[in-house]
Amino acid sequence: MKRLALGLGVAAVAGIAWTLTAPRQVTADRLEAIAAINGDATAGETLFWAGGCASCHAAPGADGDAKLVLSGGVRLSSDFGTFIAPNISPDPGAGIGSWSVADFANAMLAGVSPEGEHYYPAFPYTSYTRMTDRDIADLFAFLKTLPESQVASLPHEVGFPFNIRRSLGGWKLLFFTDQPRVTLAGADDQVLRGQYLVEGPGHCGECHTPRNPIGGFVGNAWLSGAKNPEGEGVIPNLTAGGKSISGWSASDIAYYLESGFTPDFDSVGGSMVDVQKNMAKLTSGDRDAIAAYLKALPERANGWE
Predict the structure, then answer these.
(1) Which of 112, 127, 208, 258 is 20 to 30 Å apart from 24, CA to CA?
(2) What is the pTM of this model?
(3) What is the distance between the alpha carbons of residues 302 and 69, in angstroms, rounded to a whole number?
(4) Which part of the chain has CATH 1.10.760?
(5) What is the residue-averaged pLDDT of the chain?
(6) Quick one: average pLDDT of 9-17?
């Protein structure tokens, strides 16, 4: 009897865990609302650059018009394995050309594939989940205008137990949220626009926020900097508690995003080079909004210390 009871208990726990970790798609009502939007490819291009899509999904080393060929291949190293960005060109076989806007919305907002599997959060849906329905539709419309590529996506190089995708359902329960990362009392429209760009499509926190041992953001450390997962050094603290930009004015930050030059006449370097090139394609108003948001952040100690 004891063995039977134990077996039933284990089965019950396993059943609950299986249910809780199931991929959860965007609600049907929201998907219908997104599908009803006539996506604007011109507006979607701005989101494409704000989201840094080409930085991961263009071929390694691509430049100029080649950055619009989203054949994938960029390798992202981490403590959990190496993730390889897939082909997201409009090719119906190798890319996402056969996807519906609902498929795209589920990927961006819920981290769920058209096959109903969890995506690894190396794809920053943890930030994209804050995007509006209109922006999802517009970005999808722009992606459909890009060149097709028949380059096959490569599988991620992730070992046990991280190759068990179902376990990502538990990770999502702990860390996946569409809520703002910080509360800014009395923020004006410019700061709120900057917050949306930084916390949403810009996904700045994915690199600039420290993570715990299982890859979740450390609480109360938003944008305070982090160890560089790709190698030596650190990703700078963007709050007033760090030395990287704490002495910069909002106009200094906006100019850096536009030109790549710091107030000390140094120039952008490292992985920030691609980010700055993307930000240079935004409107001056959006760069000013990002700067205003960063200056409004609460001060945090360096996240890597």
Answers:
(1) 208
(2) 0.91
(3) 37
(4) 189-296
(5) 91
(6) 52
